[in-house]
Structure formats: C-alpha cells, structure tokens
Amino acid sequence: MNAFKLPMRMFNDYWIDCIYNNIIGALSVHNEDLKYLACRLQFNYYQYLPNKGYSYETISPDYLEQAWMILGMENSITKPNSIDYFYRMESLECPNDRGVHETIKALLAEGRYLFVDIDRAYFPGAAEFRKERKIHPTFLYGYNDDARVYYLSEDCVTLGVFKEYEIAYDDFFASLQSVDRSSVLIKAIALQPDSSPIDAAQIKGATISRLERMLTHVAMPDEDGALIKHCGLASIQYFADNLHSILPPISNEHIELYIPMMRPYQYQEINMTSIQYLGSSGVIDTSEADQLMSKYAGLKNEWEIFKNQMFKYLYQRSMGVPIKNTEAMFSSLREMLVNIYGIEKEASASYLQILQRAHHQMHHA
C-alpha cells in the first residue's frame, strides 16, 4: 500500500497536554460523544507568591525571569483517569534504522496510532527548526510512500494548536537520530471508543467537583518554603494585585506564554461545552443554560482581551518600544483581572447552585 491514513480530528478546545489532546482527537472521530471527555477532568487556577519572610527581591530570580509566577491553571490528571479507559498503550522498541519505516506501516495497518519521540529542530516550519533541540512526542497516523511523507498531529508551528503536519521521511529519520542513534521507542495506541459510555451523571458530578474546588481558596508552601501556592478563583485576584512585580522581570527569552495564558479562556469553553451537554440532556433548564452560556461566553471574551493586552506589553518591551505610561498600563490590566474575577466567581457560584439543585431533585424524585 503506497499511502495510508487513520481517521483523525484535531482537538484544540482545551490544552491538556500533547498526549491527551491527540488521544481525544482520535477517539472523537470514532465516537462523537468522546469530545466531552475533557469535561470530566479537574481544573483549577493557581498563583505562586513569595511566602512569609520572602519577597520578590529575595526569591530566586529564575522564578520571575522564566515566568513561573504567571497565573496558571493545572489539570488534575490521575492514573487511571477518565480518558485512560478508552485506549491501550503498548511500548515497542526497534532499531533506529530505515527498517523503522516498515514497523510504522505495519502498526498503522493494524489500526494503531503512534507516539514517537522526535527532535523538532529537524521539523521545517517549526518554531525550533534549526534553532534548538526540542525532544517531543509526536502523534503519527499516516504515511504516503509516493510523496515520501508522514502525517502527524503537531503544534510545532503554532504552539498549543494542533494541525496536520506533513514531514518528509528524511527529516523524520534525522529527527529520530537526534533523539537516540541506536533505537526508537514507539508507543502504539489501540483505541477503545466504545468501552464506556459518556453520560450526564458523569459530566454533572465532575463539574460539581470542579466548581467546588474553584470556589475554595487553598494555600500551601512549596518544597523549599520560598513560595506559597494559592489555588482557586482567588488566584486571579492575587495575580491582579501582583502584576507590577511579576511581569517586568520576565526575560525576553521566556515571553512565549501562549499555552499558560490561553488556558483561562479555554476553560470557559469547557464550561460552555458541559452546559450545552447537560442542557441537551435535560439536567439543566433551557433558560438557565442560556443564561450560563451567555456569562461564560462573556468571560471567554474578557480573558482573550486581557491576554492580548498582556502580550502587547511583553512584545513592545521585547522589541524595545517605549511604553508611554507603564503605571496606567498596569492599572488597566489589574482592573481587567479584578472585573474578570468578580464575573467568574459569580458565574461559578450560579452554575454550582443550579447543578446542586438538579442533583438534589434527582435524588428526591
């Protein structure tokens, strides 16, 4: 067979990681309902700040320069999780020579998607191409012997956005050689799209748990005690109050914050998807679902505006463009975040109240 391609859909609704985004994308082609798997995962905002007895001047400069202090959102992915039930992964090691091509073809013919560690410095068009070594698991789902290319799902061109990427055989083999000259580790994925149905009770339960965590403020010190990690929606307020200390020290080499800063507005998409599913399943009243959808659509827009304004500041600074009124700029960014915090706290409380009421009514029907 000269060419072969397994069915694939890119999942870019929310960034989980390069493994699970690709697995959900492949699964959703075979079972449309599995695009809702991300709604069953747990997310939470977090913000690192100097602990008592420390200050921005006394903590390690790396924390600030490498943008570790930026508002983050973590995915609580435990093993096994709600995604792991839908596939089996087998690790196979083979010699790193041209014979790996026949191994790849045989595994694809069995219907197995493949993760292979590559070096994106050999990927034309990638941000790292001929610049820096970047070992990364790529998702391979097809080939074309006539065109001499593999078909991959990659975010190497636009970080955090998966697209079909064609790479020439010679470039692919060169990238494998950069990782390990002696052997290639292939992780073959056998999908099980019908192993467990998605239902409204699962989505409702996961959403209630997620909203409860979001609305609860938890603070814990890190291992060396220099930082304290704040978790929950209150992290947004802490980030707002510390912008003037967090943003200026970020090194120009570390201003690629696309994935961390796209997560807050993508999280609103997770909420909207769960509302849509629970509304269509009859768990949420139609009018209440419409009101919640409107709130979260507005939040998504507010987060995108904030992200763009923050990147504008970082880009101008990296290019040496003078910023006329830094004080006013930080004040504007802080005001945006304070507004977002209030809206998101109110939306989360409303959504939780509606789901808890529905849960109570179901158990007393």
TrEMBL record:
Organism (species): Paenibacillus oenotherae
Lineage: Bacteria, Bacillati, Bacillota, Bacilli, Bacillales
The protein, known as: Butirosin biosynthesis protein H N-terminal domain-containing protein
